[in-house]
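Supplementary Text 2. Reproducibility record for the structural model of the 349-residue chain.

All settings were left at their defaults, and a single model was retained for analysis rather than an ensemble. We include the record here because the model underlies the residue-level annotations in Supplementary Table 4.
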Amino acid sequence: MGFQNDGASEKDQPREYLGLSTTIALQRLHDDIETVLAAYEERYARQRWFLKFRSALVGNMTSALSWFPMLATAVLVVAFVAIGYYFSAGFLLVLLVLAIFITVRENNLRKTEIFRKVRSVLGEIKCGTELCREWTPFNYPHQCSPLSPCVTLQWTYRDGKIVNLPWALLVRGDHIVMRPGQVSPGTCTEISGKRSFKCGETYGLTKPMEPPKRPIARAPIPDLTCVVEVTPYLDNLRTTLDNFLNRPTTIINQQRHLLITKCIQQWGFLVVLLLTLIVGALRYLGFYFNGKVPTNWRNVFLLNPAAALLPILPLVFPMLWITINLWGTARLEALLSIPQSVMRAEVQK
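Retained model, structure tokens:
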């Protein structure tokens, strides 16, 4: 009877073990990531609307609409209003406003894409927090797994047991086992407080030793149990949030910018405008077609240049370009979401 009472009392007491539990660790990782993400989202939300509008139209090679054709279209709208073509001016204005709205919206979606992806990761971590009670050490990679440049693993105490945990899942307060020759996953301190390691520092001898002249028995360097002070993934997250827009421009966007924006919308626009104005000035001064065609200054200097420049302006091109890109992205996402087994079965048919 006494043995049973002692066992029941020990069972009722909370377990105390080294390190964090999986639930607490995942919740702490979720909270740390959400704190960093909320700071970046707030900084972007405080950005003035004028700067967001300007970034979509000025100096942006990924945008299908630039500031020059936008201003040119606005000038043509004013020209059509001046000569009395109100319906044409209104139609052009509607197309211009629609193109600007879609372009600015697409630019904002591109800038906030990383925020939505991190939010989806937070959802996965939240789901893992609710289901991690069923996890066992067999859910982690084997402790003797070979080192890999793709996934860096670290011996960590979780739920009182040593598991091989990826660096991305380490959080502040985790107890890790530093082995000789191992690189520190982040800023950590030994439990006794004797040694501390910075991120990327290798655990080894504190002082260099001369090679022995004869064989000498030496005690091996012991493993150290250290406490992680900062969540290592946050540094990678901040680097990603700071530099995700600095990706190189794709070849398709470079060719589109050169052919459409530079050659047609800027250089072609200026050449056609100059030719129509020169020919119109010669007609207006009576050098040719004198008396055969009307030489009203509105028709010569407003209507004719506007009619000649209208096909060059990007009235529908930005909307078509963005629509085709979204359609292609949707097709690619749908293709990647199909399981490989289903794709192989379709190919065999």
